[in-house]
Design goal:
Elements: H1 17-27, H2 33-44, H3 46-49, H4 54-61, H5 65-74, H6 80-91, H7 96-111, H8 118-139, H9 142-154, E1 157-162, H10 167-177, E2 183-186, H11 194-198, E3 206-210, H12 217-228, E4 232-237, E5 250-253, E6 258-259, E7 262-263, H13 266-282
Parallel strand pairs: 1-2, 1-3, 3-4, 4-5
Antiparallel strand pairs: 6-7
Helix pairs in contact: 2-4, 2-5, 4-5, 7-8, 8-13, 9-13, 10-13
Organism: Caballeronia mineralivorans PML1(12)
Protein name: RpiR family transcriptional regulator
Keywords: DNA-binding, Glycolysis, Transcription, Transcription regulation
Length: 298
């Protein structure tokens, strides 16, 4: 079996979480399948890595604990605890509310076997949503957000696509953007017509694609079509390892909180609302006046 470790000297080169994630992104395509699973877990659970045990990560990834150790060694660390140390350095004392919410959810689930009351379920899900919002605020990339706003401001046409759990978000973005003078199109795929609805995209247009693991094939097709026709792409996804993020003109990352294996949409909707408000401000719109009249609720 080929040795997967690198020169230990490389461990000194990785000092921050961002540096590690950049190295993982660059190496991802060449990683063995098991190590890809570990990479994806770490990308999607950054704030939890410092608390997770090797066995917990292995179980979540469906791999043997030795694969988690090999993953750390692949990037120049002597073991998983050394890799964990950079997450502890990054997150200890920062984003504390997110950590406490995650710990609270785990504790409540562990300590309440059997049937939970409806109120307990609601509070745990609300806490998970708060955790996601805290992580969104801490990890927001101002440069990418500004690039996203500028792209939308300059777009001739805006196409928005999101399937399955991302579809409500796509619908909301279209609703919000229709309060501007922009030409906005929802790529709904009604009747299976994704290809037909995206075929008119061209240079000068922007495709907004919302997708999270396991990444809708329809959304990936629309992004490829946009790139083929010279349009720009704004991708809203869950991390650098997303196949949609690698060649996007701009990307915004969001990781939702989850409880009972169900992910919320709170952070994604919040990010999209912020994107619209920032665009409206750039376009010098009066957001209050953009609200519909005639008794319709927004």
């Amino acid at each position: 079996m080929q040795e997967e470790t690198q020169d230990p000297q490389e461990a000194t080169e990785i000092q921050t979480v961002d540096e590690l994630m950049q190295r993982i992104t660059e190496a991802y395509d060449a990683l063995p399948r098991q190590l890809k699973s570990v990479a994806t877990y770490i990308e999607q659970h950054r704030s939890n890595v410092m608390m997770d045990r090797t066995g917990d990560i292995a179980a979540a990834c469906g791999v043997h604990p030795s694969a988690v150790v090999r993953f750390a060694q692949r990037f120049g660390f002597s073991g998983f605890s050394d890799l964990q140390a950079i997450f502890k350095q990054a997150y200890t004392g920062q984003n504390g509310s997110a950590q406490s919410y995650q710990q609270r959810i785990r504790k409540l689930i562990d300590e309440k076997p059997g049937k939970l009351s409806g109120g307990s379920v609601a509070r745990e899900f609300i806490a998970a949503s708060q955790s996601g919002l805290a992580e969104l605020e801490a990890g927001l990339d101002d440069v990418q957000f500004e690039a996203a706003v500028k792209m939308l401001q300059q777009a001739e046409n805006i196409y928005v696509v999101g399937v399955r759990r991302s579809f409500p978000v796509a619908s909301y973005i279209v609703y919000a953007l229709q309060h501007t003078a922009k030409r906005v199109h929802l790529v709904s795929g009604f009747g299976g017509m994704y290809r037909e609805q995206i075929r008119s995209v061209k240079k000068g247009d922007v495709v907004v694609a919302i997708s999270f693991a396991p990444y809708g094939k329809e959304t990936q097709y629309c992004v490829r079509a946009a790139q083929h026709h010279g349009a720009k792409t704004l991708v809203i996804t869950d991390g650098q390892l997303s196949p949609l993020a690698r060649h996007a003109s701009a990307h915004l990352f969001v990781k939702e909180g989850s409880a009972f294996a169900f992910r919320s949409l709170t952070s994604t909707i919040c990010l999209c609302q912020a994107l619209f408000i920032a665009l409206a401000y750039r376009l010098e719109l009066n957001v209050e006046e953009s609200r519909e009249t005639g008794g319709y609720d927004d």
